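Subject: complex prediction, re-run

Hi both,

The earlier run crashed halfway through, so I resubmitted it with identical inputs.
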Amino acid sequence: MGSSNVHVVDHPLVQHKLSLMREKDRSTKSFREILNEIGMLLCYEVTRDLPLELVEIETPISAMQAPKIAGKKLTLAPILRAGVGFLDGMLALMPSARIAHIGLYRDPATLQAVEYYFKAPQDLSDRTVILMDPMLATGNSACAGASLLKARGARDIRFVCLLAAPEGIAQFQAEHPDVPIWTASVDERLNDHGYIVPGLGDAGDRMFGTK
Ligand code: URA
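This time it finished cleanly. Structure:
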């Protein structure tokens, strides 16, 4: 699958909020709040094709067949730690979702993803799983996260990020061509330190105030 598997969410609200987040002087508080808001908006897009089923309900006036989301509860899978920034926004729309925590850090020398924690529902084979990390840079963490979810049986995985580098998209699509990507922007490139250009800096540090 090629770039048709990449959905750039060009909604004006998303684009405006993303520009605010890129500004280097934006406060930690504001960065975190906006990331949550964009998480909610991206959640709306990534769930657009969820199957519905008709269920009998009663309104105050009459009985009717009403559409509700079919199947098991979705699973939200943030890659720690920056992926957590999307979680509250997504949970606001899907409060009953299950959560899979994926602990991966990026080795600063090799830029490889190193696993340190993984806790997910036992069987993901019948659940839509939304894998999330704000920055798709080298693609190493996203690839490792998708592999961990597949090892638990996941067959319907969707990856959501805020920014993607072309290099990260290429790597992710090479390893996981079956996993579509939703992003607010495809930026220019990666720099020598593995940061996205123009990007927004280190998403984890900016959201948690650790720098
Ligand atoms: N992770 C970040 O937080 N920022 C980047 O630009 C790349 C990876």
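Helices lie at 12-22, 28-46, 87-93, 140-151, 166-175, 203-208.

- K.
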